[in-house]
Amino acid sequence: MNSALLRGFLNKTWRTSILVPLKTYVPQPPVLLNLNCSRNTSFFNKLPAEDIWRGVTAVSNAGKKRGRGKGTGKKTAKDLNRGQTIGLGKKNFVWPGLNSPIIRGNDLIQQQPLAENLEREKNIIKLRDSMGGFRMMKLNPIDRGWSGSKMPGRSIGPPDAVGDEEFESFDTRVLENKIVFIMKGNMGRKRRYSVLSVTGNGNGLAGFSVAKAPEVRTALRKSKNRAGQKLINIDLCENRTIYHDFYTGFGKTKIFCFKKPEGYGLVCHRAIQTICKVVGIKDLYAKIEGSTNLQHIVKAFFIGLMRQKSYQTIANATNLHVVEFQKATNGVAQIQAVPLTTEATNKPPNRIIDFMQYTLGNKIVLKKKKIAPFYVNTKGHTLYQIKQERFRNQANVRLHKLVNQ
Predict the structure, then answer these.
(1) pTM given for the model
(2) Total structural domains in the chain?
(3) In a domain, 127, yes or no
(4) Strand locations in 31-96, DSSP E?
């Protein structure tokens, strides 16, 4: 109603004379109606929910350039209302005004049950699981890497072809993928990705490289191609292991590598294990002391592989015969190399030269003394040892019988 008409109506009503008894007449003040203008729209229903949340969690352009807000703007929660219809649930009903009109034609719709949908829960779960947009392809456990969702340990294929030269039999593995920063005069902190990868053909030819780039894919491609350009030829003993035990180091990292018989496997750090797979080493034991920096481990291990000496080279350098004793041959001596000159062999050496001591460079692996468990001196453990006394050599006897059958 217009305010002017309302004011005139009230004034006219007040001026109208009414004949009432004098005692009962009490004049009343005019009644004023307050009409407040209201809007059904506000800031919260003008914009969709995504834009409102973006205004709360977003970072300015200057903040993005400086590396702020890495995890913002990500949807971590699922829309639990998706796939559900008002009025429909576990028990389907026709609800007039909710999921159906109140009047259809000349008929009044009544509340009535519907047929039960047995696939409803399954369809809603499938619809919710499909939310989130891009999903990573499920990988084979062999190609998944060290920790499943991370890049280190994962294969990224052979290096790109250079002209007519193709790396068909090569495989590249990522060893390290991290974010590094560099300060720029006009941009401030600039973020880049650093990738360390190793490539090899599994037959003694391998190389490694570190590359940096603003994008992850670019850094992976650059590192892979650089590793293919820096290949190193590594000699393998029996095409499966190293020639001899050796000690190597880089920085604060020390590595002791030991030659092992066929079937032993790779018992070593996961970075060394990945390198051995692309190089072609199948049997090795390695012990790391000091720093476990990945780049230092890779450099130290490659230095040790390149410094290997053949048996003949060692025999020529020491003027001594290289003799090997193996448990597999019941300790029978097997001559591996004979020196070219026999001057030193005519005279007995002043000291016993140990092959391991010579190849390890007079280094000794640190062996920590094991701490005895708390139950060693208890009564129950003493009784257990007494009961197990009769079976003390059973495993060795069974193995001996299997070997000599």
Answers:
(1) 0.61
(2) 2
(3) no
(4) 93-94
